[in-house]
Amino acid sequence: MKIEELRTKIDKIDTKILKFLNDRMDLVHEIGLIKSAAKESVYRPEREKEIIERLNSLAKGKLNKESIKAIFQEIFAVARNIELPEKISYLGPEGSFTHQAAESNFGSTSKYLPLNSIKSVFSSVQSKKAKYGIIPLENNQEGIVQETIDLLGQSTLKIIAELPMSITFSFATRSNVVDKIKRIYSKDIAFKQCKEFIRNYFSDDIDCIPVNSTSAAVNYADKQTDSAAICSRFAAVQKNVPILFDKIEDSTNNHTRFVTLSSISNKIKSKSDKTSILVNLSDGHGVLAEFLQEFHDAKINLTKLESRPAKKGTDFKYVFYIDFEGHYLDNNFQIIYKRYNDNIKLLGSYPRMI
Questions:
Q1: Could you give the CA distance from residue 352 to residue 330 in angstroms, rounded to a whole number?
Q2: Residue 207: pLDDT band with limits 50, 70, 90
């Protein structure tokens, strides 16, 4: 078959796809009216997860799971904006890994508000300058983001979704030859995670200059032809800076867990949920052990337990951040919650992604 004939077939398929998408958006609009009347949230992460999982189970062609997710996240984003245009704040600057996490979940058509600190993201959602906020919670190489946990303890905002993302670094530069590169810009943590690449490709006199973000590094590399940036592919593509090397990180198992903040908690259960809480227990022999035994007896699986300074008074007291499988409305947790109501702060329940 000739190329022209194949293209004619593609055009016909595209026409059908467009019609079906418009039909879908009409249904979305009807659902939006119902949600609006009931004052329900437009963003339903458990529903989106359910749709993607169903489509992945039907996939038999050339589209893999990642491709299906990427395509439908864009469709979800367009649909949400039809129901109710919403602004999403995130820990900036533009091109940051948090920006990438936000777009991978809310799509490129949503409106975004980059902010300079995690605290600013909390404030933007609390003041209703943004409907949702995206912040990092933990990295499997570097651990928990302490500021995020502290602010969750102080805020009334809730976690309504988790967004796990693999962290990979690219080497972006205007130079075509490695030998001509004199300076490399990046965030200090990126240099640490790409030590082997730097050692293998450059001599000891290469100037590694730390900057505030990998996004800022791209800006320097864009303006200086003898410079390069260690950054995300996302940031390099945004700034249109050529990528000389891809996936230069030392470890292929570098993952960050981002979360979505909202002023409204997620009261709708999915097929597989996770809940985050902060626990403040009184001092005493075996108090923590007795508390954890409650979860064991209720057959609730804890997936994370981490202590943080309580930052109250002069004593060395701690609060505990806990993740567990299940929803906070599950009966087995509600029994524990009623017993320890004064000690537990609910941070939110959300569809489990990892």
A1: 15
A2: very high
